[in-house]
């Protein structure tokens, strides 16, 4: 829609307006357009703040603690949703346990069923952008809609100007070079413009309000901190004044992507001595995810020891801020504000079965009493170009392949199969 | 430092992983990254309480520094925005700088304090900032060599004991 509008604008109105008023108009329009595209790309391709899934050890440890807490009285397939309560700034906040990621979600995090990941400070999943909007890319998203609203207002204004001027000077225009066929476009253009202006400007206004009160779309829609819930209810995350809230959201420090790190248990292969180490590292990371064998645990932690012994070069931190293409769900189903898909309730937290994923070849979920053995669809972003060769990309894929419990050979084969699929 | 590196490698050869302890996040201050300073009971016999708390407190301090919202972070943010974030091709963010400091600190703590006690700290960054993982090793007399043998075949799955 953006592109169509912009093109119509450029081709029909620009030549006329630049003659009549000033050539600066298309120039400004062009700059704005590029800025909009830039922020759009940045929003789409940056990691919103995905929380990596728990390692099997962590998950086991957590489950143990939960069992102790529950008294392990509730048997059966699905124990009641697990929550922890925390007091933040005087408000009681419930932390929910995410069954897919096997972690207790930090406050303000939420699990997105489309991306199949927990995202920090989850705002919403935007289909227009094809990505979740979360902690790390909220500022890009905000700049995107803000600049987009400026652009649409800009275009709209000048389209209207064009129409007005034209109608005033009908006589002169017949002599001009512009073909009459162009003008119908202008009318259509202005109609399209009108609607998009209102919706985009409305969205920008809404997000401006959210930023100034330091809430997420999620929280606003659920009314978590609204006064209607009770007199004592207030937002514990707000800094108190609008200015601080805005600054914190837009100019605060940008935390690095956590998912890159997940693929790296050790530093890059060149750093460790000996070719055999290269193989073992790969094997170690793979076994880390295939897991559960005590010996494999030992292997991987031995390598961690090795890593601790060698100087860790935190390689490519500069690229961590650079983008991981998330396979975008570009099913356009309305403006962003209406999508609040971040709220699956824990009992229904096997979204990977229901979401339409790219990889349909998935091992069905087998729920065992001891542990959950399931494979998530390969929606997980992979670090492109982080490692020299193609095969290490499967690192991160295997990391996202969560497989607890017993080591069947069948299970391992299926993991390997999935790994092969994901590396395609 | 070679001596310290040695001690880690010897640990690798002679120790086996007994268990892992996880220090969870402390969310009482909001979404900032802080870890609980509660002393895990499994470490009771392995390390002095005070040393452990000292480590966690220092880490918490580092993270607070990384996430601090103040004049310099605003400046960095605005500068980055003005340059369309291209500036990050040349320089690191403040957060990343602090993360480097943290990993150095953890490595140093491991070498000096934890490895001699048969413990190993894992950088929380490698665990998605969810936990500080502390691996507890037991001394084991036998087979250091089997580890390197089995590790190369671990890609085949089964990991010989």
From TrEMBL, chain A:
Name of the protein this chain belongs to: Palmitoyltransferase
Catalyzed reactions: L-cysteinyl-[protein] + hexadecanoyl-CoA = S-hexadecanoyl-L-cysteinyl-[protein] + CoA
EC number: 2.3.1.225
Domain Palmitoyltransferase DHHC span(s) in chain numbering: 94-222
Bilayer-spanning residue ranges: 20-41, 140-165
Leader peptide range in chain numbering: none
A Pfam family this chain is assigned to: DHHC
GO CC term, one of those recorded: membrane
Source organism superkingdom: Eukaryota
A single BP term in Gene Ontology: protein targeting to membrane
Family to which this protein belongs: Belongs to the DHHC palmitoyltransferase family.
GO terms, molecular function: protein-cysteine S-palmitoyltransferase activity
Main location: membrane
UniProt cross-references to PROSITE patterns, sorted A to Z: DHHC
Sorted UniProt keywords: Acyltransferase, Membrane, Transferase, Transmembrane, Transmembrane helix
Membrane topology recorded in Swiss-Prot or TrEMBL: Multi-pass membrane protein
Species this protein is from: Calonectris borealis
InterPro entries registered for this protein in UniProt: Palmitoyltrfase_DHHC, PFA4/ZDH16/20/ERF2-like
Localization terms from the record: Membrane
Domain remarks: The DHHC domain is required for palmitoyltransferase activity.
EC supergroup of this enzyme: transferase
UniProtKB/TrEMBL annotation, chain B:
One Pfam family this sequence matches: Erf4
Record has Mitochondrion as a keyword: no
Gene Ontology CC annotation, any one: Golgi membrane
One biological process term in Gene Ontology: protein targeting to membrane
Principal location listed in the UniProt entry: Golgi
Membrane topology classification: Lipid-anchor
Low complexity bias (residue ranges): 142-154
Positions of the Golgin subfamily A member 7/ERF4 domain: 21-133
Region (Disordered): 141-161
Top-rank taxon: Eukaryota
Residues in coiled coil: none
Keyword terms: Membrane
Places the protein is found: Golgi apparatus membrane
Keyword Kinase recorded: no
Family label: Belongs to the ERF4 family.
Protein name (database record): GOG7B protein
Species name: Chordeiles acutipennis (Lesser nighthawk)
